[in-house]
Amino acid sequence: MSQFIDYGNLMHDAMRSLIQKVLESVQVNGLPGEHHFFITFDTLHPDVEIADWLSDRYPGEMTVVMQNWFEGLEVTDEGFTVTMKFGGTPETLYIPYDSIITFVDPSVEFGLRFETHETEREEEIEEAPMAEDVPNEQGEAEVVSLDSFRK
What is the three-state SS of 55-93? Predict the structure, then answer.
């Protein structure tokens, strides 16, 4: 038996459960009001499933925005699948909760950040460009820098 309570992992489990519950509600009811999500995830996580060209373009991490157009949202206990458009082409992504780095709903100024203790992995992520796919008026994703949203 361990000599301490691992509050960090317990908190991460609770935060991932919250994300699952939110996504389950969106799967059934759609996005309410002005809610939308910026989800940054580790593209190198072994269980992430994205097109090769996306993992080549975003080696380390990627941020997607679930807002105007997405379909096929399927939520499980381990992660979720969603189809989004990139340059007009639909791509299906599988994002396990363990791969999520940040989950933000800017409409209500809510955000979660998952800290890791893997120093080497953090350095790789810091060097990787952060981008998100923001749907334009045609429902297609545009890539923009997250820095434009920082204060």
Answer: HHHCCCEEEEEECCCCEEEEECCCEEEEEEEECCEEEEE
Residue 104: left if φ>0, alpha if ψ -120 to 50, beta else—which one?
A: beta
CA–CA gap between residue 42 and residue 89 (Å, rounded): 22
Q: What is the pLDDT of residue 68?
A: 86
**What's the CA gap between 23 and 29, in Å, rounded?**
10
Separation between Cα atoms, residue 25 and residue 19, nearest integer Å: 10
3-class SS at 101? Answer: strand
The pTM assigned to this predicted structure is 0.75
pLDDT single digits (tens) 80-120: 999 999 888 999 999 999 999 999 999 999 999 988 645 34
DSSP reduced 3-state for 96: strand
